[in-house]
Amino acid sequence: MALTGRAALLAALGSLPVGIWEPGWTGILAVNAPLALACACDYALAAPVRRLRLTRSGDTSVRLGDTADVTLTVANPSRRPLRARLRDAWPPSSWQPGTEQAASRHRVTIPPGERRRVTTRLRPTRRGDRRADRVTVRSYGPLGLFSRQGTHEVPWTVRVLPPFTSRKHLPSKLARLRELDGRTSVLTRGEGTEFDSLREYVPGDDTRSIDWRATARQSAVAVRTWRPERDRHILLVLDTGRTSAGRVGDAPRLDASMDAALLLAALASRAGDRVDLLAYDRRVRALVQGRTAGDVLPSLVNAMATLEPELVETDARGLTAMAVRTAPRRSLIVLLTTLDAAPVEEGLLPVLTRLTQRHTVLLASVADPHVARMATARGNTEAVYEAAAAAQAQAERHRIAEQLRRQGVTVVDALPDDLAPALSDAYLALKAAGRL
Question: Where does the DUF58 domain lie (predicted)?
Fold first, then answer.
C-alpha cells in the first residue's frame, strides 16, 4: 500500500490531522476527514495485484544489434478494473544506454475478467543469455490517491547471438568457390585433386591434363577437368584464453575471431566440407561435432552466443591434444588465436608439430587497428615515438608469423574488418591447390 503523489499534495493542503499506518511504517499526515475517507475508498477499489496472472511469449533469440519483442500477457481475474503501471525488468545490457525506462514501463487498463498484452522491445548490447527479472505492478484506485504494489516472477530467456556481420562477403566467396568447382564459364584448369569430367581441348589448356586414352577413342583431343575435393574435415579452434579478451575497436578479439569462423563455416559447408568447432582455454568451453550442412551454422552460432573470454593463460598442450582427439584423421585445423610473441613461442610452437605432422594448419589472428593507425602517425615528437613503437610491434608479429610459416602453418594476420574475408580467401587458396 502506498500513498500517491496526488494524495500527498491534497494532504499538504488539509488541516485536520488524521493518522495513517502501513506495515513497517508509521506516520501522521495533515489531511482532512473527507480526504481520509476518499483515500480509504480508493484503496479498497484498487484491483489486487497478487491475484494477477502473467505469462510471456515472443522471441527467444536475437542477433546482437537487432531487436527482440517479448510479450507479457496480464490477466485480471478480480471483479475490479485494473488501472496500473507495470515495470518489466531485464538486465541493463538488454537495452541501449538511456532507453531502459521508456522500453520497460507500461500503462495498462484491464476490465474485470479480461486480459491485455504489453510488449517489451529489447535491443541487447552484449552476447549471451538475457533472463527476465521481476515484473512489478502498481495498481491504482479510480481517484489515483492510493495504490497497491506487488511483484511477479515470470521467467523468460532471450539468447543474444553473434551478429555475423561478415555474411555480406558470402556471395563473393561462393562465386569464387563456383569458379573452383567448374560451375561457371570461368573454368579453373588443372586445379584441385578430384576428377570431374572430360571436355574437348582448347588452346591454352595444360597439356598435362590431356587424357590420351579418351582421345584415342574419339576424333578430338580430350582433357580432364578437376574440382576441389569434397567431404574434407575442417576443425575451427577458438582460443578463449586471456589474449582473446583484448579489445580491438569496440569489441573483444574473440568476437572478431567468431565472425571470421562463421563466414568460413558457411563457405565450407556450401563446398561440401564438414565443419566442427572447438572452443578451449584450459578446458573445453564449447564443442560442436557431426552437424549436417544445413544445421552447422545455426549450431555454431548458438554455441558461440554464450562464449566469453576467460582471464587465464591458454594451455597450448591441452588445446593441441583436444584438437587431435576431435580430428582423428587428416583435417584442416584453423586456429583462431594470437600472434603475440610470448603465448606463441612459449606455448604453441613447442607442441605445434603434433598438429602439422598429420593435419594442414591455418592460423588466423586479429591485428589491432590502433597499432596500424599509430604506425602512420607523424607531425610531432610524440607521434613519431608512437609510430616507432607500432613499427616495432608489427615487426614482432611478422617475425612470429614467419616462424609459424617455417613450421608449415598458413598464417592470416588481418584487421578485424578484414579477417573474415582474408581467412576465407586462404581456405579457397588451399582448396584450389589441393592441400585439403
Answer: 198-374
For the segment 50-73, what is each residue's pLDDT rounded down to a tens digit?
999 999 999 999 999 899 999 999
Alpha carbon distance 402, 407 (integer Å): 9
340 near 248, Cβ under 8 Å?
A: no
User: How do residues 405-415 score in pLDDT, each as one tens digit?
Assistant: 999 999 999 99
**N- to C-terminal Cα distance for the chain?**
71
For the chain, what percentages of helix, strand and coil (3-state, to nearest 5) are there? 40, 30, 35
Q: String of b and e for 331-349 (b: at least 16 CB within 10 Å)?
A: bbbbbbbbbeeebbeebbb
The phi and psi torsions of 293 (rounded to 5 degrees) equal: -60, -40
Domain count within the chain: 3
Structural domain of 328: 167-172+231-433
Do 123 and 210 belong together in one domain?
no
Three-state DSSP at 415 gives coil
101: helix, coil or strand?
helix
Cα separation, 89 vs 359, whole angstroms: 50
Tell me the whole-structure pTM to 2 decimals. 0.80
Let me know if residue 205 belongs to a domain. yes
